[in-house]
Batch of 2 targets.
Target 1
Amino acid sequence: MTTRSSTPPPQSQLGQQLAADIPGLEVQDLPEILDAHSRDHTEDLQFLPDLVALPNSTSQVSALLAWANERRIPVTAAGAWTGLSGGALAVKGGISLSTKRLNRMVKIDELNHQLVVQPGVIVQEMQEAVQAKGLFYAVDPASRGTCTIGGNLAENSGGPRAVKYGVTKDWVLNLEVVLADGTVIQTGANTLKNSTGYNTTQLMVGSEGTLGIITEATLKLLPWPKFNALLLVPFADPKDACRAVAGIFQDGNQPSALEFMERAAIELAMDFTGDRQLPLSSDTAAHLLIEVDGFREEDLMPQLERLAQTLERFDAGEPLMAMDSAGKDQLWNLRRKVGEAVKAHSTYKEEDTVVPRGHLPELLAAIKQTGSEYGFESICYGHAGDGNLHVNILKGELSIAVWEQTLPEAIRAIFQKVVSLGGTISGEHGIGWVQKPYMDIRFSPAELALQRRIKDAFDPVHTLNPDKILP
Amino acid sequence: MTTRSSTPPPQSQLGQQLAADIPGLEVQDLPEILDAHSRDHTEDLQFLPDLVALPNSTSQVSALLAWANERRIPVTAAGAWTGLSGGALAVKGGISLSTKRLNRMVKIDELNHQLVVQPGVIVQEMQEAVQAKGLFYAVDPASRGTCTIGGNLAENSGGPRAVKYGVTKDWVLNLEVVLADGTVIQTGANTLKNSTGYNTTQLMVGSEGTLGIITEATLKLLPWPKFNALLLVPFADPKDACRAVAGIFQDGNQPSALEFMERAAIELAMDFTGDRQLPLSSDTAAHLLIEVDGFREEDLMPQLERLAQTLERFDAGEPLMAMDSAGKDQLWNLRRKVGEAVKAHSTYKEEDTVVPRGHLPELLAAIKQTGSEYGFESICYGHAGDGNLHVNILKGELSIAVWEQTLPEAIRAIFQKVVSLGGTISGEHGIGWVQKPYMDIRFSPAELALQRRIKDAFDPVHTLNPDKILP
């Protein structure tokens, strides 16, 4: 009756008790397995859970949460460990709840343009499955080939296409959630409109597994805009690239992606991928990568022409245009690999800043100014159309003392600037563990107290992903 | 220093005390004023407040809420009294907080495509102000000429264009909110992306003034799609019209409005407006009103051609096309007046049902079937593209006993069908007072208990719009 993998049964007393109490639930605690469930893609973090549990159904999740809640044992959900804020790390030990076996695409509803999925489904697999039916799920974080929809829901992930199509939250109609005590609820309805009570759907999205565990999501889909074109636009001055971003929208363009990369970002990606075919003129200091899309091939050219007019106003260089899939894949691959390339190049810290997009020039200047003051180099890139700039601060030659003690001050200075521009301290990576110390920059004590009361309303004894988000 | 209207000072002891404690706050309690603040557009409801307060600043709202909270006096916010669920009615008496004097458009931010408004601004005035700058706020409830953005935020209002552009919640970036104890908070940031703590912005939208009072909203804007065309499409069988709705999207069309009207709806609107120019063939039983839009005039024709192909598949009659503004205004005016026309025709109850749009045919059949069983006539119309059907149940010849005692059973039967189809009991009107008895159809006891804990986290002593939403 119980299907188990070939992993040996749990060794610890706690693991044996859990396995005995919930027959059929896969429980693991080999040291190498705990180690494999102790790190995500955030720099420099490791926290070992005591156990790993791999439920394969909502009822197993429910039984597990009730069991843990009674015993005050922390439960932290994890998908594919691609997170960038430590959200999936069991910082208080306890149980790492892997969604690996909750990986069914339950239903593609072609009549209503909806998709029902379990949290462990890989985002790209989900996208390809609906595209095969002419449908479109737009949210595509750089990690989409490995990250799970559960992780995207937990962190409210974005990605390049968010600029036209919105972030994860904008695609969610309804969630099945297991609360801390094991109760199973639905948050919404499978409808495009809903004015029926409090919006607990949107409260769950981005809550990083601290309010409940999502076991099923109903997502909306759109018809697939099959056609697109991609432009890589060089600028001699990064400030001009940043200024152009707001200008593009002011001129009525609606790009389906609008990415910014400093020269160092694309250079590192070229080194990392070994793809050196791209012409990179010596006077290029930054690029915008701009995509337009449409339902018909003839929808593209008018958009490209309008874009060209805007770009001229901002001193752009000659764009490189990719219309065929090989060319587009090459450009997107370079963009997607920037994160890994920076990681391979140096110890770094990444801050996920976001401001109203018209303030990008001021943000970039402030980051560089802070870098000069504190003596660090930074590489900036990201989803400029959303005002979302990933700031990679490189350790380089900095001493460990400066890196660990002085740098948080510099980050604080950057975040203070972000907030003064109307922005916030995470656009799409979440707060998790690493941004928690900075929450007071964005939120007043009263605002943080309100968030704590919400946490208490969902999880009064704090067993769900304890010690995350709220300082 | 204090600017008062010519209304006399409050007569009641409570009113005099409030006016004395918060100098500058306009407080009214003349019987005719209390009467004018006792009804909205929901059928058959009247609840008198004890006082009307008209704060003109966030700090006055804050002082008022702190004052009322200390004294356990209910405070119910109200905009323009166009609500359709009784959300603004002071069902427990106390203070009716009018947003009439919080009516400033604080800022149109053309650089960032954002708008900052106070809650008392009229939606249509706001739309026209941003359109004058080439920008677009899409949400346009039928009452947009009189309703306020505060009311739209409170009820998460929709309207025809929601089918392409989303409902009120999809346009909100950040809110300034006064909590029950007078604390002023911000919920979000002025950014398109935000993964920074719990989404209290979306929790406030649609919460009908039960969690806090919104005193300022930052809304996003889009470039204005200036061009559109409108089709009125007749069907001999309403079921074909309903089936066509999902078909339109399955064929890849993206209408900017897709409305359904039974024949009786358009006939009543013609009677009510006196506009009888529309050809109405004897074999027409229902219409779809379909709008397409674009940034260029030449964007329209390909959309109309594609639509025509779909409509043929569903046995549509010859469409009437309006391309000039007089023709479009005429059609929209008839559609917008349906609600008032029904009201003028008969005592009625309106239910704001919503289902996944592919299930509209089953919903319409179930409504008519329930009508036969319980002996009532109904007129159905609404935002079919969103699966949102307004069901107007006519009193007609029904006895008061049947109307008051048997009808709730029939409504319950309809809502049960709605929920079994994946739908919910309010698409855009909110729960307020009148739908509260049906909340148990959509939500389990555990789900309702969770919503109650959220209410308690925001408003522990229940002074904000008490006795609404939750049964």
Target 2
Amino acid sequence: MTALVSGGPSAGELPLGSFVTADGRALSGLRLRYRVLGNVEAAREHGWILVFHALTGSADVEGWWGPLIGPGRALDTSRHAIVAANLLGSCYGSTGPREWADEHDEPFPDLTPADLTLAHAPLLAHLGVERLALATGGSLGGMVALEWGRRASVPTDRLVVFAAPAATSPQAIAWNTVQRMAIEADPAWRRGRYFPGRGPAAGLAAARALAMITYRSGVEFDARFGRQSSRTAGRFDVDHYLRRQGDKLVARFDAASYVALMRAMDLHDVGELRAAALETAGRVRRVVGVGVDTDLLYLASEVRDWTAAYRAAGMDAQYREIHSPSGHDAFLIEWDQVEGILREC
Amino acid sequence: MTALVSGGPSAGELPLGSFVTADGRALSGLRLRYRVLGNVEAAREHGWILVFHALTGSADVEGWWGPLIGPGRALDTSRHAIVAANLLGSCYGSTGPREWADEHDEPFPDLTPADLTLAHAPLLAHLGVERLALATGGSLGGMVALEWGRRASVPTDRLVVFAAPAATSPQAIAWNTVQRMAIEADPAWRRGRYFPGRGPAAGLAAARALAMITYRSGVEFDARFGRQSSRTAGRFDVDHYLRRQGDKLVARFDAASYVALMRAMDLHDVGELRAAALETAGRVRRVVGVGVDTDLLYLASEVRDWTAAYRAAGMDAQYREIHSPSGHDAFLIEWDQVEGILREC
């Protein structure tokens, strides 16, 4: 459906050489797995699109934003080329804790959304990208997008940030803390030094189950599950659902990557908002912050607040809100609204 | 301060004999640990007060509602006698899973708030209580209080229910599910068949940490912790706080009791509200439901809704709201407001 038009690779792996983090630590041996979709020829005229994935996402943007991608769609593959990298720390081809442990004795380093952003500069240079029509992402991807605003290596027309605050709140850190505690309660965690394929399945499942509550909403659970026990005798459907969500993530994600990217989310903080806005204004023409009215994890008010602060600093910064019963995950569900925002803004 | 006036025992243990649950299961060998405070003589005229504790509370009401108790206080020990039992399933002297396992091969039975209520009838008979001036409790204790309304063994003047819904929502069940999953991720859980003192400490700590987030509020965490890491390098203060709360509970509570009482909370459902109101109207003169405006766990709107339904059914049912940054736990914190509600209503 969205096959790559001639002129560029559809996927690749880029060694980052000597990578320096935002706070000046030199890290060697990192690699970035990426994918390119769309029309690379047309992108020379209309600009590229850079997409950042969320906590358990990947460079396969079609896998989680598929309905937005295609000729004439919001992420228009006839006019643009779309590039997405698997974020550093993740387990879908870029360097994460598992690959790191193969070559280093010291633990996987703390990475921030700023670091995850910085890793994209060599990728865009490698692809010959000189201008972005759009940089966007949601949740962790939204945090990385906000940092892209401050650190963009090429001029960027529009930055659209879904469901991400300017700094992670203590309550959001708290949800992550409990997820860490659940993973650590599983002895298979072994402080991250487990053998491949033998990670803390029960702990990671519990962590994912908690995350799912914060990604959805009570209104949705009322409508979807109520107090029914229709699947397993003596077990509420919502209990069954959460356990299944846990099992599904265990089958596809690595616990150490999960912990590393939660840490990145905890560390997210663009700092003083006026300064961040001024940095962004030098690189990005327009910023749009998108909140979800039912988001439990990163409140709509948090998105509204940084958007207002960017505007007060003189930037072209708009706030949009998705109305949904689905909570935080609405940016992966409410296709019409997401499409409308990406088109109009 | 609130020493017992002559005329009654200050504490005791009552074998329940052949106890029958609300759904007709006969259970033998159960015991109830209870405490009595205040003036038993005066209570013959002014009535007794029955208090139900929350998930990790105990019959020691002074330990968690101390500021409300004393001569001239809302729970007036000069005019009333106060009785509280450790709820069945708990680990503070009444029969819980540990004691059950000593005498039974089958697992500890599912108990509902209705069952926890029913166990109080023989206790009041044993103490010679013929009338209650007040029955009250919060959270799980509020659920038990609501069931007391439907099943009171003696006439009750006022029923004051803090921070409890008419039926536990799927989202609240979801929080409990994750807590169960965290406990199960700890191999020391052994499906509840661990040796005394050797329970799933890490799993229970993670469960408690999650519960604490739902007992408090984002507003409180913002003010109290922000994004500070002032205690341990590289660890956010809110992370430190949650781990400490987990450790504190592990030191004082049994994991199997915790699981049993979470199950009781999940099973809480007074059923059709008009029918529940009519049952209650035959036993209780006035019902007051108290919500907390920032409660994440049992929403103020849930309390308001059942109170309105009871009123619509013809009961004297009032709704009051505690305004607090502290979330669900406000009924254990906002002494002036709780005292005011207990006095005025």
